[in-house]
Amino acid sequence: MSARVVRIGIVGSAGAATLAGVVGIALHFLHWPAEPLVLAASGAPYLMAVAVLGVVGFAAARQWLGAGVAVLVTAVGAATQVPLYVADGGRDGHAIVAMQANLLFDGADPTALVEQVRTRDIALLTVNELTRTAVDDLSRAGLDRLLPHRYLAPGQTASGTGIWSRYPLSDTVEYDGFVLHQISATAQIPEAGPVAVYAFHPVPPIYDSGVWAAELARLHAILRRAPTDRPVIVGGDFNATHDHARFRAMASDRFADAAAQAGAGHLRTYPTDKRFPPLVGIDHFLLADAHATAVETVDLPGADHRALVARIVVERFGR
User: Where is the Endonuclease/exonuclease/phosphatase domain positioned along the sequence (predicted)?
Assistant: First the structure.
């Protein structure tokens, strides 16, 4: 094979890698809810990372214009991802530990979940895909002894949602008009005062990407109406990643993504029931008037998601 053919191959591969990065950036900012594009946006970071190969390929071929373009694409892609790895400054307040878990109906091992709650000193737990069987199993495993207050909307298969709390719960609400259950309550934390707690689970885009987009917009509207006289903690399987523009809209203004606050980076939570590691992060905590100092994923045997555990500092109002 001649050097010219090799060079053409390198340049072509570099161009394709750079184009992949451009596609990833476009998907990151795209709002159009067409299902193939929504699903592809979950892989936007991988596409952006490929642009680095474009820089290497063009530089190896001494194609400096192409290398410059690839550097620019790489830089723009990095600008969308690097902030996830930079922690915000801390705040004063009362620290609690919260967990978000998707149970895969009643597939998750209840004993393992309760042991995580015990050993990690979980004070608030939001749960998705909560069945009545899972409620009974978790109770028998001792969850109600650790977190004696609860507001639950169990259902068939994926529809159920729940909140367990160490603290008394009041102002319970279930929001109508969603395919799956969306709920909220107020936790009365002695050291911090009232804290609004939401548990969300919009449908996945493979159900219907138009419904997915509409539900995220409606959940965003619910958060815009959240009480402003207290901190807010939102846990859920959002069926959306940081690279979905609709999720970033929710994690804006008053609200922030806990993982981004803590500089935890891409916390990939799904899927865990395959032969390969989790690829995307669709489980999140959103916070208002609160700040996460640490967020990590936790194995949950029997489920198809990893759970999230966050150390959250909540502000006290009225001082």
Answer: 99-304
